[in-house]
Amino acid sequence: MSTSSSIEAFKRYKDLVDEHILDFIPEISPLSKSLYEAMRYALLSGGKRIRPVLVLASCDMFNTPLHFVLPNACAVEYIHTYSLIHDDLPAMDDDDLRRGKPTCHKVFGEANAILAGDGLLSAAFESLNKDMLMYLDDPDLLKRKVRAAYSLSKGCGCRGMVAGQITDIESAERSGSEDLFNYINYNKTAMLIRSSVLSGGFLGGMDASTREDLLIYGENIGMAFQLVDDIDDVRSGQDTDKNTYAGTYGLDRASEKAMKYIKRAKDAIEKYYDHAEVYRYLAELLEQKING
Amino acid sequence: MSTSSSIEAFKRYKDLVDEHILDFIPEISPLSKSLYEAMRYALLSGGKRIRPVLVLASCDMFNTPLHFVLPNACAVEYIHTYSLIHDDLPAMDDDDLRRGKPTCHKVFGEANAILAGDGLLSAAFESLNKDMLMYLDDPDLLKRKVRAAYSLSKGCGCRGMVAGQITDIESAERSGSEDLFNYINYNKTAMLIRSSVLSGGFLGGMDASTREDLLIYGENIGMAFQLVDDIDDVRSGQDTDKNTYAGTYGLDRASEKAMKYIKRAKDAIEKYYDHAEVYRYLAELLEQKING
Q1: CATH number for region B4-290
Q2: A256 CB-near residues (< 8 Å, 6+ apart)
Q3: Alpha-carbon distance A253 to A248, whole Å?
Q4: How confident is the model at residue A2, as a pLDDT?
Q5: From the candidates B25, B27, B29, B31, which should be mutated to test the interface with A, based on the most A CB atoms within 10 A?
Q6: A103 touches chain B (CB under 8 A)
Q7: Where are the domains of chain B?
Q8: Is pTM, for the whole model, over 0.90?
Q9: Which residues of B84-115 are buried (b: 16+ CB within 10 A; e: fewer)?
Q10: From CA A80, how far away is CA A25, in angstroms rounded?
Q11: Pairing outcome for strands B97-98 and B101-102
Q12: 3-state DSSP call for residue A64?
């Protein structure tokens, strides 16, 4: 069971992300103000901030200072947000609503939505590179920053999120094998979540053994996350045209599979006790969702 | 006049880019092979490789080793190529042909073209971050890599290319003031060219005075580059619906303006003699285009 302290820890980090989410967006000229407006709209439209909170968990796990971790936390949310804007486009999922509000292209038009996505992806790496400049004379901290940025860039790109997305779209109209769903869920969702957890670890200077534990946690919680999302969709009758594991193999099998991932994730971080309470809370939240 | 040696230097670097352009694309799973195919198609469709050659000019200017500069040169071409894929989309310029070949979305569909662009932008920063990992134990070289990556990220994003592109699209249907064209051309085109030149400088460890010269060269050659491109379009009767400086103020005034930028660019690098022959060649190439 989640304790009230872990709920509070999670909420405190989420509030910090909400408060600072625009801080690392580069200053945009008034002549391009619609770029800023579209990016801002997407960033402030009610995200759960799971990924940046997982980066901020570095502060509990390694006593890493908040100001050192915050730019990396916001960068992963920029990337997650760009991916939602592009996924919603008419050529992709063609969604009019996201979290109950009109999607970015519905409000700002398709061209501006494409560019807002491009702007957010660029802003993620611009902010991380700018942040590195502050540590040019501190080789140890600079190394941590470089490793965290590499982890994020790997998770979001051609060996991660973008690869998963293209395979997801291409397989949307045929029934998927278990392997194919695993590939899609791993790349489309788990890789960025894994990168968030590992980014926090790199920033905290994790040792090899902790790295292994966080990797197992990140991959497994990421896989569970996508399965639970699909279970929710099936239960609520949303996105029924989408080809997902839960839609293809049924709720029982999807729930059982998700619970296995959650158990592996929890086992990997058990020994860190209170230092891992944010990680543990997310696992318990997913369990609760499965158990309705 | 361009000497045959500067033409050869330029061509040698262009050939190197053509030869290595796929080297820094992350390994993509066969399950996402259409992502790789769309990215490959766009990267191999006959680009002039101006921007990566300007990065490689670092080798002449500072005696920087080729292998040190090549990843940064290819990264800027990934970014340029992604921007062309997205610009050509139906929601943007809606172009069917690019360099005489079908555009990426015509061959691979709109969703895959959007994702191929996203993949190339991600690949640029993934390859640069991966490359930084090789210099973790050499603080001086790592600083150069970080500064070069920051320069590129700034040039391509919300204070550069993406900002210019959104303003260009929004102003397409009304007549522009000179200030507005300057803003668009500077952001949409000159910023990425400036970043290419400065990236090479950072990799070569430039001093403050050389940095100032290269900045002036990069900005001015970049502005001239866009003007000459628009002059070409007016002369050949292409893209006549586009709102450009040459289209609005006429060929004479556009040519005169471009020649001023070219002169400033050439003056800034004059004192570097043979070390700047690639930069000089590009300036002379633009002069020749204006003079027909």
Answers
A1: 1.10.600.10
A2: none
A3: 10
A4: 56
A5: B31
A6: no
A7: 4-290
A8: yes
A9: bbbbbbbbbbebeebeeeebbbbebbbbbbbb
A10: 14
A11: antiparallel
A12: coil
